[in-house]
Amino acid sequence: MGLQPLEFSDCYLDSPWFRERIRAHEAELERTNKFIKELIKDGKNLIAATKSLSAAQRKFAHSLRDFKFEFIGDAETDDERCIDASLREFSNFLKNLEEQREIMALSVTETLIKPLEKFRKEQLGAVKEEKKKFDKETEKNYSLIDKHLNLSAKKKDSHLQEADIQVEQNRQHFYELSLEYVCKLQEIQERKKFEFVEPMLSFFQGMFTFYHQGHELAKDFNHYKMELQINIQNTRNRFEGTRSEVEELMNKIRQNPKDHKRASQFTAEGYLYVQEKRPPPFGSSWVKHYCMYRKAAKKFNIIPFEHRSGGKLGDGEVFFLKECTRRHTDSIDRRFCFDVEAADRPGVSLTMQAFSEEERKQWLEALGGKEALFPSFNRAIIPRPEGGAQLDKMGFTILRKCISAVETRGINDQGLYRVVGVSSKVQRLLSMLMDVKTCNEVDLENSIDWEVKTITSALKQYLRSLPEPLMTYELHGDFIVPAKSGSPESRVNAVHFLVHKLPEKNKEMLDILVKHLTNVSNHSKQNLMTVANLGVVFGPTLMRPQEETVAAIMDLKFQNIVVEILIENHEKIFRTLPDATLPEPVTLSASPPNAPPRQSKRQGQRTKRPVAVYNLCLELEDGDRPNLPKEDTPPSSLDSFSSPSPTAAAAHGPPGPDRNHLLADGGTSGDWTSTA
Fold first, then answer.
1. Largest CB tally within 10 Å, which of 31, 268, 473, 610?
2. What's the pTM?
């Protein structure tokens, strides 16, 4: 399991586990920074002295072999695996050069040292500065909240209102900074792979020229270099698509964070200050806790957590709620307070303080207390605009007309489906095609009024406008699973099986489209639209998750792989039935095993195909590819929180779970309120 994705919605919750995930990302970046620093030092040693070249190469090779990239999510693509393996491949090349001690070219400084120093300074250094700002703003935010919550409720209303506004403005600034920092952390984790490997690639290419046997070695290396360029470019293409989706999601959450709450089995969760009773003459103190409540089980979990003390979790408490009542300011010199009484702790009553009046009302609503005025914030699925597109006879007509026109007029156009049309023209064409009165009048094959890029954009827009993606929400996760694991053959078999589970109309339309895309890829020498490039374009069009999260966006690259499998195996998948003797594919499985990279052709076939790396077109023979805290809480443990209660609970609830089970049984994700 790699690094967990940092959800933007968690920036507003700012839970202890969110902070743990941030620290994991920071630790990984620090590890990368130290490694690059060491690698730069080793590179300079290579240039400095001929006599130490062999020893420096061995050290350099050792460093490369032992370093491994971490990834976000639960699996890597084949291209990312190849990029990860590239460091070990580079190490092997160095070992072969150990006996050939020649002076390295001065260009090593330009091709290796400077790019790495630039990446370390501009990228990793920028993250360090963002971390300083984030830590400083965290300290400022929670210090201001502490000071604000200590204001006496007897002060003038104008003074209190002004203080409320100041705190809210500061909190919004903190959330903005947190969003930017989380986005930067995840971006640099994805960026470092190709930003780091490309200088290494240039270094190796230049080094071979300066050896007596460099020509032969470079010849052997050249094929691997071309494969790696494809892997890097595919990873870069997917990164660009993923980054735009992540930024779009971040902006949506920034505009309305309450509509993008993550699913949770807790009815309510967030920070509350809990009053701790102390023996005279110390009085009482207020300690911040992260609280979680499940309405179905009436189970309340409270865990002390202080951001400013390094974020260390304290020992949590679990009790079962009996009742909750609002605390009036005439009975306590603090605002936003309410009392909760424990059913399994007779005589135990806790006084808690929310961050604001709105949050107190939300907690009262969730806990079933008095004055529950605000509705709970249920987890909402982001609605998709449906438009007028439907999977009906008219839809098939649109698809066939567009495909026929593309194959007649523009099958060899460079950047086919990648180059987009003018938005207004695309909308006008799609409107005419979707209108029964005008559809038959539109002549796409012979009319010069409609450019090919307008037709391809209209086709993609129609597919995106369907109420449900062509490969359905229901099977989305099942299609993703085989793309993350297994051998090339098992992936094809799994996708083959799942395609035949699609509704008949979906499968029929998918068949027509994929057959067309296969034809497009067959002309990739002219149009530069390889199978990989078509996967990047049509992955998000044919597949999309029903819920928008960072974790789902990280699976975009696997959607592309599924589309690649469909294109490369169209005849088998759509013209034959799945093999009944094979086991059904495992759906939504756990971490995938290490799998060999998927190859686009079966071994033994040596047909040439072009490789489009933006403006670079390479000839490559496929046949030469290398295979590459405790459950039983004693009654006295809540004494420090206790205050006398007028009534005692008659029955005791079951013992509470330990920390490992806080997210386990009970509760529903639909009844969810956040107060962070």
1. 268
2. 0.56
